[in-house]
UniProtKB/TrEMBL annotation:
Keyword annotations from UniProtKB, A to Z: FAD, Flavoprotein, NAD, Oxidoreductase
Gene3D superfamilies attached to this UniProt entry: 3.50.50.100
EC class (word): oxidoreductase
Single annotated GO MF: NADH dehydrogenase activity
The protein's name in its UniProt record: NADH dehydrogenase
E.C. number(s) listed in UniProt: 1.6.99.3
Matching PANTHER family: NADH DEHYDROGENASE, TYPE II NADH:QUINONE OXIDOREDUCTASE
Length: 430
């Protein structure tokens, strides 16, 4: 019996598990185990919507145990603690509940093939005060924590005769997460008036985005950044470009010019890196972002039975650039790793990974969606915005649903989601 263990049920990890589980059902000599530290999967590009309260895990999440039961693989909840390559096993930390009571002891799981898909976390670059005073949006738990804080702050502002006349939110990092969150928060502030907070509105919300680089969306084409900037400024978002944050205090971010940008809620969304666990394992070659260096077949360098995919994977292309940590990268990596694992099991030749950039899209709530689509026959890109861009943006999530659930289940899930959005509340209030 060959055992494949996938650690991390994010976009790439869960898609890979879905593909491999179908293979395992036809080949009984192969079994699949997925390990993740939480019980529910939410597509990471949607976490800012969870934070704003536009969606919740009950309607847009995937319960790993239910998914495992349907696709006939095993799910183990736990946090990776170590890898024993000599004995081909991984160690998981003990699992405790919120009161500290033991649920599961430390465990070891043997593997024949191991896949690391543990994603990424925000990089605070060691900036003083950030960890203690800021919210991060790296996980479902963090997104829900921010949402609870947002509701509390809106309730304070909504109360009559309150001393807090404005709700100030400051976001460090003007990438996709920061800009999309800002637009969603503006939308939510207006929605809240219809859900028991009549004194709250976007007019009582002050949003600031702070970017160290010369412009917002630095990783995307300039035309997309300009269109997004115009849309954000139109709804009153304050943009601080070329502004470096040197520390975070309880009441706001302090810039290199010693200016305090006040905030009731502070979000850090600047830069990503692989989790510190990668460095702590002290067994992989890594780059500056702590990502694991891989060969052409997405195997960790000098580790033939360990594959790496997604945000924690460092794949350097022929032109010297690194494959960016995006959902489309994880999707493509999952496909290549699946093929290579099957080839390994069947004694066939491996396939090299090649990244294809299909473009970038930024969805600014109901206000605007802008992006570029890469041409199939050339390296040129086509600028898109409005309804077409929104349709393409939605289709990206649909592709993920199809990969995770299959066509029939995904179609029914998406129909259910549309019905729920039509008849249900537009804002999550718990």
């Amino acid at each position: 019996m060959k055992r494949i263990v996938v650690v991390g049920g994010g976009a790439g990890g869960l898609e890979l598990v879905a593909q491999l589980s179908r293979y395992c059902r036809k080949h009984t000599a192969v079994e699949m185990i997925l390990v993740d530290k939480v019980r529910t999967h939410v597509w990471k590009p949607l976490l800012h919507e969870v934070a704003a309260g536009i969606i919740d895990k009950n309607s847009d999440g995937v319960d790993y145990r239910i998914h495992a039961s349907r696709l006939k693989y095993e799910f183990q909840q736990g946090t990776l603690k170590g890898i024993d390559e000599q004995n081909k096993s991984i160690a998981l930390d003990a699992l405790h509940d919120e009161e500290g009571e033991l649920i599961l002891p430390e465990r070891t799981i043997e593997y024949d093939i191991l896949v690391l898909a543990i994603g990424s976390v925000s990089n605070d670059f060691g900036t003083p005060g950030v960890k203690d005073n800021s919210y991060f949006l790296d996980s479902l738990v963090q997104a829900e924590r921010f949402h609870r804080a947002l509701l509390n702050q809106m309730l304070r502002v909504n109360q009559p005769n309150t001393q807090q006349s404005m709700l100030k939110v400051s976001i460090v990092g003007a990438g996709a997460t920061g800009t999309e969150l800002a637009a969603q928060l503006h939308h939510v502030a207006n929605l809240s008036r219809a859900y028991g907070m009549p004194a709250m509105s976007a007019q009582r919300l002050e949003i600031s985005i702070i970017e160290a680089g010369p412009r917002i969306l630095p990783a995307l084409p300039e035309r997309i950044a300009y269109a997004a900037k115009s849309a954000l400024q139109k709804i009153g978002v304050k943009l601080y470009e070329d502004t470096k944050v040197i520390r975070a205090e309880k009441n706001g971010f302090v810039t290199a010019d010693d200016e305090l940008i006040e905030a009731d809620l502070m979000v850090w969304a600047a830069g990503v890196k692989a989790p510190n666990l990668i460095k702590e394992l002290d067994m992989f070659e890594t780059n500056r972002a702590q990502q694991v260096l891989v060969d052409a077949q997405l195997r960790a360098k000098n580790h033939q039975d360990i594959y790496v995919l997604g945000d924690c994977c460092a794949f350097q292309q022929e032109d010297g650039t690194w494959v960016p940590p995006r959902a489309q990268s994880a999707h493509q990596m999952a496909s290549t790793v699946y093929k290579n694992i099957v080839n390994q099991l069947q004694g066939k030749e491996f396939e090299d990974y090649k990244y294809s950039d299909y473009g970038s899209l930024v969805h600014l709530s109901k206000y605007s969606t802008v992006g570029s689509l890469m041409g199939n026959l050339s390296n040129s890109s086509m600028f898109v915005e409005g309804k077409l861009a929104r349709l393409v943006y939605t289709s990206l999530y649909s592709m993920h649903q199809f990969a995770v659930h299959g066509w029939l289940k995904a179609t029914l899930t998406m129909l259910s989601r549309r019905v729920s959005k039509f008849v249900g509340p537009k804002l999550k209030l718990h």
